[in-house]
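Hallway conversation turned thread

IA: we were arguing at lunch whether anyone had actually written out LysR family transcriptional regulator end to end. Turns out nobody had. So, for the record, here is the sequence (289 residues) and right after it the structure tokens. Reply here if something looks off.
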Amino acid sequence: MELRHLSYFQAVAEELNYRKAAERLFISQPGLSRQIKQLEEELGVQLFERDKKHVELTVAGAYLKEEVDFVLNHLESTKQQLLEIAEGREGELRIGFLGSASNQVLPDLLKKLSLNFPKITTSLEELSNQTQVEMIQKDKLDLGFVRLASVPEDLEMKPVFRDTFSLVVPADHPIQSKDFKSVGQFATEPFILFSSDYSNYYYEQIMGICRDAGFMPKIKHKSVHALTIFRLVENGLGIAIVPTSLKEGYELKVRFMEIPEISQFTELSVIWKPENRNPVLGKVFSLFS
């Protein structure tokens, strides 16, 4: 078995189409079919179910795909780390984050990294909770900043920032902060919320805030992006409930009013995979103490 066999298998497993996989690999379709057959013969298992119209992974093929994804990604990561070291740096830290982390937590981490480990470079991607979890499991990210109640058993999680909730209303809304006593005052208004795709746990917290105030919100719009939500609020299309820290960094015609006397709070947590072999990952944990 050679590395090219794994690359060819991965392409077919992702495309589930020999013609498209061959075009992607810049080889002929018959040549690709021969390479896959060689791999199957060497492994002694059938990897694909194939007829004239469909290509599907067998159970063995699906298992191999997960392993090949890990192996090829780890090789690519190793190559990148070698380039970093060759150029006089210690390595690269790949970080995923929610938009709310960019207001305080992420800048604070990057400042500490620059001060304590100036030879470590960073790669940053704004991603959803679930995408971060999946990419960390596959070693495509080293750290993630998420809002989740729990993570899979192969990952670790540590809270790094606790936040309150605030109501976001148009700047000219008649209810002022001094008159704001309860979310129940807004029970008849349309709400704009972060979608449950952003975080089902977070979504349920918002529902809980409203239930405790004696109503269920009339949800008019949903989004996974804070700026989109704030733009809709600004244009009078509804009101929103968001983490209070999101009020920083936006110059919009909206007002944030911290919700008083509620039990709910939201936590931003850092997650990672203990088995991740990136040599620079261990150095950053001291920065979270």
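OS: looked through it. The chain has a mean pLDDT of 89.
IA: good, adding that to the notes. DSSP finds nine helices and twelve strands in the chain.
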